[in-house]
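User: Reviewer 2 asked us to show a designed sequence for the structure in our supplementary figure. I'm pasting the structure tokens here. Could you produce the per-position amino acids so we can include them in the response letter?
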């Protein structure tokens, strides 16, 4: 069963005077590797007099570079897309034999290609303590043995890779309180662990750094999250969204040999599903901002609206 939904997203900046806009980069087009099918997409820009150049960054994310001819009192970006929401199993993948158990290592060629996604943050006090706790809880006996005896870890003592990764993701979901944070930017891993709270982007970046320090290549993901109200309420757990809903969201993507990029969402503790539509997957959050660019100094009024509407539902098979 699949459902076609129309997503509308409008971002509007109004200025208190005529201003010059520098080149603006808009990263609001679904990435080529999105598993959810995008049936149609449109981008509308105000002011209408502008030049647009579509390009792909080094990670193949789509971005639109906008150049404006004249000063303006407003800047508006409107996205309309239609997505086919078909349920898929996020665990439907195979791993290379050498990566089925954790810890594993990337081969030399893959390790070279994944270098940007393995850059680690500094080992600050709270981050170091939390990382050490993760290692003790998930690989304590392994860590102690390899440190003292310098022996290779027997396969029997390793854990299944997917169990390890799911466990770390769920630990972060349990420990870091989700908050709506309107301040710009992303908290450092140390800040998130000091507050033990953060927005989705803060938790996603913290998880990226934890995985990198654990030896797993990871990248930051900015995208749309679509949640649809279920037809039937759950009898033995949370029923999910109370109404059809969409918002900008952030999560983490890890690279598993054999499976490729695999999305994990520390805000929910789950793997990414059909409702996760990636827009920009990058080594650092700064290059995944939905809209970036310069403007003359001025007073700015910001507003946005987002909604999702069901437009087609395939008939049930009985």
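Assistant: Here is a per-position design you can include in the supplement:
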């Amino acid at each position: 069963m699949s459902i076609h939904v129309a997503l509308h997203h409008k971002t509007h900046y109004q200025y208190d005077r005529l201003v010059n806009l520098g080149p603006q980069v808009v990263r609001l087009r679904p990435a080529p590797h999105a598993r959810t099918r995008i049936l149609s997409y449109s981008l509308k820009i105000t002011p209408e007099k502008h030049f647009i150049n579509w390009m792909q960054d080094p990670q193949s994310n789509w971005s639109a570079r906008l150049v404006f001819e004249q000063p303006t009192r407003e800047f508006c970006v409107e996205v309309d897309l239609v997505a086919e929401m078909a349920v898929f199993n996020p665990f439907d993948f195979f791993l290379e034999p050498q990566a089925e158990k954790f810890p594993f290592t990337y081969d030399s060629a893959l390790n070279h290609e994944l270098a940007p996604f393995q850059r680690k943050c500094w080992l600050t006090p709270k981050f170091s303590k939390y990382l050490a706790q993760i290692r003790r809880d998930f690989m304590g006996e392994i860590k102690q043995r390899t440190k003292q005896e310098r022996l290779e870890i027997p396969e029997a003592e390793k854990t299944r890779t997917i169990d390890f990764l799911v466990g770390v993701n769920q630990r972060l979901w349990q420990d870091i309180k989700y908050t709506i944070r309107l301040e710009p930017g992303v908290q450092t891993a140390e800040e998130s662990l000091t507050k033990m709270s953060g927005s989705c982007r803060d938790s996603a970046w913290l998880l990226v750094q934890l995985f990198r320090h654990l030896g797993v290549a990871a990248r930051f993901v900015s995208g749309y999250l679509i949640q649809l109200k279920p037809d039937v309420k759950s009898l033995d757990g949370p029923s999910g969204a109370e109404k059809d809903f969409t918002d900008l969201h952030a999560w983490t993507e890890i690279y598993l040999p054999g499976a490729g990029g695999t999305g994990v969402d520390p805000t929910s503790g789950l793997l990414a599903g059909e409702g996760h539509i990636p827009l920009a997957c990058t080594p650092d959050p700064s290059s995944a901002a939905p809209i970036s660019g310069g403007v003359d100094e001025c007073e700015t009024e910001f507003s946005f609206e987002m909604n999702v509407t069901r437009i087609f539902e395939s008939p049930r098979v009985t």
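For the response letter, you might also mention the following. The longest helix spans residues 125-149. The radius of gyration is 21 Å.
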